[in-house]
């Protein structure tokens, strides 16, 4: 996937029966409030990720940092999942969610490195022209991260579970931002 000064990031397909315990700890942590699974049981988490694993247009991956579980990544086709009827998808649109594992020892820049690795993975597919996200309008921290990697907010939308900020990041914008960051780090 990618290597950074923080370490190496890779992903593997999520295995719901094997990974449910780990994910349950992550999604029920207070820092994961915007994931909207605070009261989920272990069985709820396993059932949700089995549902995703069976879906033709939605995929979940366990993200590893130097070989250790560190984040969750989901990609989906917005023509069929999450954004159906809420905007006009274009060819090459890919939806994305990500969640960084809670930690007692935060590393400065880690979450930005994760979203950069996620975006690099999504754009590794030549068919991906732009990435679409729809975070909660109140999630200011993720809005700042999204902007840092090249997302441009389009408008607020009403989803059944939240008021969301529909945002897009084109391949060109991501790689422009990514090279700016790399140039800044080497200066």
From TrEMBL:
All residue ranges annotated as the Acyltransferase MbtK/IucB-like conserved domain in the record: 12-59
Gene3D superfamilies: 3.40.630.30
Organism: Streptomyces heliomycini
InterPro entries: Acyl_CoA_acyltransferase, Acyltransferase_MbtK/IucB-like
Pfam families on file: Acetyltransf_8
Pathway: Siderophore biosynthesis; mycobactin biosynthesis
Keywords: Acyltransferase, Transferase
Cleaved signal peptide residues: none
Protein name: Lysine N-acyltransferase MbtK
Stated role: Acyltransferase required for the direct transfer of medium- to long-chain fatty acyl moieties from a carrier protein (MbtL) on to the epsilon-amino group of lysine residue in the mycobactin core.
Keyword Thylakoid: no
Entry GO MF terms: acyltransferase activity
